[in-house]
Each structure stands twice: as structure tokens, then as C-alpha cells.
Design brief:
mainly alpha; 2 domains; 7 helices; about 75% helix; transmembrane helix
Length: about 160
């Protein structure tokens, strides 16, 4: 899905005008901006740029790897390349991608929402208890979202 959106709208026009490397970098940059927007919707916290930095860094590394391979400088064996790539993604993910989500507590809210949905399916007659999620004040948006989910009743057959 992302390829079908970013390729014709970002990559192809930029690549046609400024070259392959610029197309790659622009695509990663726009993807970072789109992720920042999604994180804003999830956490309701102002974007910090960390998520965009994650994608720009990976764009730069993709261009660097492409140039190194083309020049014949670097071509590790797949048994070495795969763990290196995974280590890079995990390391930079913990450094730049996950902190904006964890900082606002979106992980705890997401787990509470998932638990609430699963509770609805496990106890068809009664929704899960609101107090088990530690919700005492119903003012925040996240708490209201939990309450909406908790008030769902399964369809009666």
C-alpha cells in the first residue's frame, strides 16, 4: 500500500527530476513525516522529529549501501548482512522510533484497549471492569477511548 502511494506521488517525480538518490531520500523523508502525523494522532503529543529522523537516517543508509555496492566496496555474505540489517533496524528503532510512543504512555493505553476488546469477547454478558485499567478520571481523551471500548457489548445471538 505504501509503495502504491509514495512511488507515484514522491519517488517517481523526484527521481525523474533530480536522480535516483534524491528520489530515495525524498521518499524516506515523506514517509517519516507521515509517521510523525500518525504518531501525533496516537499520542496527541507534539511531534519531536525523532520518527522523521529515523526514516531519513535509513534513507541515507540505503543510498550509502547502494553506492558502496555499485562501487564494489562492500558486499557482505547474506549470513552476515541479515543480522547487521536487523541489528541496525532494532537499534535505531529503540533510539528514534519507539521513544515518542513510550513517552506518552501510548503503549499502556494500547494494551488496555486490546485487553478491553478481548474482555468483550471473553465475557459476553458483562463488559470488563473499568477499574482494572486504573481509570478514575474520565477527562482525558485516552481514558474516554478506553471507556468507549469498554462499553461495547457483543452482539446477541
Amino acid at each position: 500500500m505504501v509503495s502504491s502511494i509514495l512511488r507515484p506521488s514522491v519517488y517517481d517525480p523526484v527521481q525523474a527530476r533530480w536522480g535516483l538518490d534524491a528520489g530515495i531520500l525524498a521518499t524516506f523523508f515523506v514517509s517519516g513525516l507521515m509517521h510523525e502525523l500518525m504518531f501525533y494522532y496516537l499520542t496527541l503529543a507534539l511531534p519531536t522529529g525523532e520518527v522523521t529522523a529515523f526514516f531519513v537516517l535509513h534513507g541515507l543508509l540505503t543510498v550509502a549501501e547502494r553506492k558502496a555496492r555499485k562501487a564494489g566496496w562492500w558486499r557482505p555474505h547474506p549470513l552476515v548482512a541479515a543480522p547487521l540489517a536487523l541489528g541496525l533496524i532494532v537499534g535505531t528503532g529503540y533510539w528514534l522510533f519507539f521513544p515518542p510512543l513510550l513517552r506518552g504512555g501510548a503503549d499502556a493505553v494500547g494494551l488496555a484497549e486490546f485487553s478491553a476488546v478481548m474482555g468483550v469477547f471473553q465475557t459476553p454478558s458483562l463488559p470488563p471492569s473499568i477499574s482494572k485499567f486504573g481509570i478514575s478520571d474520565h477527562s482525558s481523551l485516552w481514558q474516554r477511548r478506553c471507556l468507549i471500548l469498554l462499553s461495547l457489548k457483543p452482539p446477541s445471538h
